[in-house]
Amino acid sequence: MDGAEKGVVGWCRYLFTGLLFPGTADADTRVRSLSLLLVLVLPAALLYPTRGFHLLEPDEGRYAQIPKEMLERGSWVVPTLQGEAYLDKPPLMYWLVALSYRAFGTTPEAARLVPALCVHLTILAVYLLGRRSIGERGAFWAALLLSVAPGFVSVARLLLLDGLLVLCVTTSVLCGFEAVRTGTLKRGWWLLAAVASGLGFLTKGPISEVLLFVPLWAFGFLARGPSAPAVSREGGGRGPARVAWYWYLVFFGVVFAVNLPWYVAIYLREPQFLKYFFWEHNVMRFLQPFDHLQPIWYYAPILIGGLLPGTILLVAYVFNLLRSAPQDGANRSLAGGFWLLTGAWCVLFFSCSGSKLPTYVLPAYPFLCLALGEYVARTRWNVQFRTRALIGGMAAFLLFVHHVGVPWYAKERSPFGDPELVGRFVADHDVAVVCFPRNCDSLAFYHDRSDMRNVRTKSVNQLLVDCHHRPRTVILFTHSDSFTGFKSTLPPSLEIVESATLKRKVKGSLLDKLTGATPWGLCDMAVVVPRYHVPPKDGAELQSFQVPGSKFHGRARASR
């Protein structure tokens, strides 16, 4: 360690720049036509065909229905779900899906085109922008590894917000690192990073800024000092550029310019949005478990399986990091260290969150693949047959899964595999349709029932009262035991005149166990009518009831 820097700071910098990442990046950044062609064709074959399988409940149904209502109502400011304001997330994804509907029709294929394009653009960004920091070969291998990572390409192509968020975060970090990488701030790249970060803010809130600035600041701290190698081949001094405070003001000015028009518009129409979204759906979801409580190591098995075959390379990469031989260290550049640092930060941040879902960690995949791509390109893995065999084998497996497995599985699990049965209950728009105790937004999408209501268990009393007011009410039971519990608590003043179940008989085979007996989001259907043609007098009937499996207790009576 250089004598000019001692103590904890000097040791941390020496560990990062002198031991772990002492090398310089590959100088060859030329785009190769064959590499670009493969990066275009392979993801396209995995992403675009067979997008029309049944919507998966609950998320895909919700994110398909909201843009549909946007078009029907002409309301582009306030997202709605079954006619009520839906304020959980900003609207960028809804806008893009609505535009896809307008261009290609209101279908699952059109809806899933948006996340599929986002995933493909992310892979292209990893190759075209990543080559500037780790060289063309490293970026090519990174794009290939990302293309066949099942936890990324198979999940992010679903109709979720995460595919668009990953595109925004990846582009923002790639451009932000390019802006500071050479030691002199590149203003154009800095502004591009701000635009991408602003679009991420308009997708899912301030998470895009959190995932950008922390690794940039950490890298700026670690990659300085007399022992640091050059980050770039282009000169400009040792270590990344120092960003003056006013350039941060410019950055956030761009972010505000992208977001402020919609945030002002939504506040004027729904004043509760700002507190509800920023406090409850960002701060409190991070600090408290909400409804997705998981252990801190939750993402470890997800990444182990989701990053395959990159997981095998990751193990080899870790062993390579532990070696002190000069030839090993020379293959690890500071740029590769930044991508590993960024991927690790994504995993650490979401692991510390109180609420965890498998999709939250998707932003880590591109950065981990960039680190692994450089490792493959600069070691013997680059020329070994097993590397190509691993990637080719996983690509073939994913082609089968995407073209055959997922459509079959979705059909088996979807309650809309028999559309005529469901349609018989919900076709009459003069009859109220109620989901109990949770949403089934796919039904609203497929059967054009935007007027459908959702009733929670705690509101079952009001549901029973409403059933007395209507000549007929169709109730869709979205939990496996909801119908049984509802029947046992039904007051004598109401009766079920028709019912049907969508549950399958499981015979015990492996496929039956895989698909299960309970469809996604909808298990039973029933038509409820009041027995009395003339409403009873006040207090004529008072029935105690309790919904099994819930904490709700109440008293329902026939309304006047």
From TrEMBL:
What species is given as this protein's source?
Gemmata obscuriglobus
Gene Ontology BP terms: lipopolysaccharide biosynthetic process; response to iron(III) ion
One matching Pfam family = PMT_2
Where would you find the membrane-spanning parts of this chain?
Answer: 31-48, 110-130, 137-153, 159-177, 243-268, 296-322, 334-351, 357-377, 389-410
Output the Gene Ontology cellular-component terms: plasma membrane
The lineage's top-level taxon is Bacteria
Q: State the annotated membrane topology for this chain.
A: Multi-pass membrane protein
Q: Which protein, by its recorded name, is this? A: Glycosyltransferase family 39 protein
